[in-house]
Amino acid sequence: MHQAALPAGTRPQRKRADAIVVVLCLAAFMAMLDVFVVNVAFTDIGASFHGSSLADLSWVLNAYTIVYAALLIPAGRLADRHGRKAGFLAGLTVFTLASAGCAVAPTLSWLVAFRVLQAAGAAVLTPTSLGLLLTALPAERRAGAVKIWATTSSFAAAVGPVVGGALVEVSWNWVFLINLPVGLVTFVGALRLIPESRDNSITRLPDPLGAGLLAVAIGAAALGLVKGDEWGWTGAATLGAFGVAVLGIAVLVARVLRHPAPVIDPALWRVPTFAWANVTVLVFCTAFGALFPSVVLWLENSAGYSAITTGVAILPGPLMVPIFAMVGQRLARRLPVGPLVAVGNLVFCAGAAMLAVSASAHARYATDILPGWIVTGIGIGLALPSMIAAATADLRPAQAATGSAVVNTGRQLGYVLGVAVLVAVLGTLDTSPHQTAAGFQGAWWFIAGAAALGAVTALGLTPRGDRSSPADT
Question: How far apart are CA 57 and CA 12, in angstroms?
Fold first, then answer.
């Protein structure tokens, strides 16, 4: 038996389904929020560990990013085999306890070590939370629940600076401590409400060597992207990291095609919506990953805003995301998902272009930044939830955790790539105001171009009329 979905119909069953959505989305929100709030706390963390270089401090961010991206797919595959609920609870426990460790870390080395554990926990709970949505709910609730999941996780990325700025006003330790009560409530809710599910057709442990190769390849690619600007894009260390990634993927593909229990089922890639969704997610999240830090950097450097003021100034854009996610859900009744996501990407593109056109040495927030910022939020709200829902629409529930892990790996790599390109385009901010403005203008034109490309690739997203797919064979 592949799943244990709740039956539909009665009011208690609907309320139970609603509670499951809340619990699983809360976990995804917490894991994604932690990625972004730490960025705001970065300066205060550095002040607590005297004598630490910027390169050393960067591993507070980079260690999490690299490990999280590397482990998502192996974790999702193992959860499909051994139980998604068990995996979710284990990942949530590791993440919550590691958060407590981060808050009390006595040295920078210990903080980085606990961040690695946090990332490992998040890599398990993220795909299992989405996988459980697809297996624990009745069929008619799944698409809507996935859109809510995508909206909450992207909203977490957006409000991270606001939450982080407020918590840092007290102490950077609270950036991690806030996860303890949230993790406890989520654990109790999941334990009581969510049925276990697994793919019983998997009788062998997914290829352990393939899982290792995948983790090394994704980790090496993420390492090259996050350190490329520091090491030099043509430096030996950067090229070596990318070389390891390419070699690892090449060997992995050979094993996936031959192994009886591959870490990624090759049939997934024969599902057109899944394949196009992954391309679109990567492109879209590259733009998304560059957008938020670019506006944060402009507010803090060009406008001279404090962390808490920056968080408040950022809020109007993210507020558009859930509002227009609901608008998108209504439009989805009339428009195929491919054109809908394409429209969202084009609106996103228009907002980024507005920012680029308005960029100047003396740009004013209310007239030159806020309008484009709000338009980008509208585009994100229209595109992202439907894009994530379409990615798994034609997959069997048995493949839910693995498929969602692949999609989320693409999201994470997109974020990393977006930040890497942003850093390369901006260069140093210690230049004249006109040079700084030109750097931001170039970054925003890049974001607009990536969003426009996402509009093109999104046209392949519309699921087929029937629910059968090559993944069924």
Answer: 50
Segment 260-298, tens digit of pLDDT: 878 787 888 888 888 899 999 999 999 998 898 888 888
> Percentages helix, strand, coil for the chain, rounded to the nearest 5?
80, 0, 20
CA atoms within 13 A on the CB side of 329: 17
* 35 contacts 234 by C-beta, under 8 angstroms: no
Q: How far apart are CA 247 and CA 250, in angstroms?
A: 5
CA 4 to chain centre: 27
Give residue-wise pLDDT tens across range 445-469. Answer: 999 999 999 999 999 887 655 443 3
Task: For helices 11-48 and 139-170, give the axis angle rounded to 10 degrees.
Answer: 30
Domain boundary among 165, 188, 205: 205
**Do 373 and 235 sit in the same domain of this protein?**
no
What's phi and psi for 429, nearest 5 deg? Answer: -90, -5
Contact 449, 378 (CB under 8 A): no
The per-residue pLDDT for range 237-262, each reduced to its tens digit, is 999 999 999 999 999 888 888 888 78
Rounded Cα gap, residues 470 and 473, in angstroms: 6
- Are residues 451 and 365 part of one domain? yes
Each residue's pLDDT tens digit, 92-112: 999 999 999 999 999 999 999
Q: How many structural domains compose the chain?
A: 3
Which among 286, 290, 260, 265 has a CA at the least distance from the CA of 275? Answer: 265
- Can you point out the beta strands (E) in 83-134? none
Q: Are residues 237 and 141 located together in one domain of the fold?
A: no
The whole-model pTM stands at 0.78
- Are 305 and 335 in the same domain? yes
- The rounded distance, in Å, linking the Cα atoms of 97 and 75 is 18
Q: Same domain, yes or no, for 187 and 272?
A: no
| DSSP-based three-state secondary structure for 360 | coil
CATH for 277: 1.20.1250.20
Nearest Cα neighbor of 389 from 409, 405, 410, 404 is 404
For residue 54, the one-letter residue type is L
| Structural domain span for residue 77 | 1-205
Q: Which residue has the tokens 């909203």?
A: 155
Within this chain, do residues 92 and 104 fall inside the same structural domain, yes or no? yes
Tell whether 258 and 190 lie within a shared domain: no
How far is Cα 123 from Cα 131, in angstroms, rounded to an integer?
A: 13
Tell me whether residue 170 is exposed, middle or buried, using C-beta atoms within 10 angstroms of its C-beta: 0 to 12, 13 to 18, 19 or more: exposed
Of 303, 316, 401, 312, the C-alpha closest to 86 is: 401
Q: Would you say 329 and 147 are in contact if contact means Cβ atoms under 8 Å apart?
A: yes
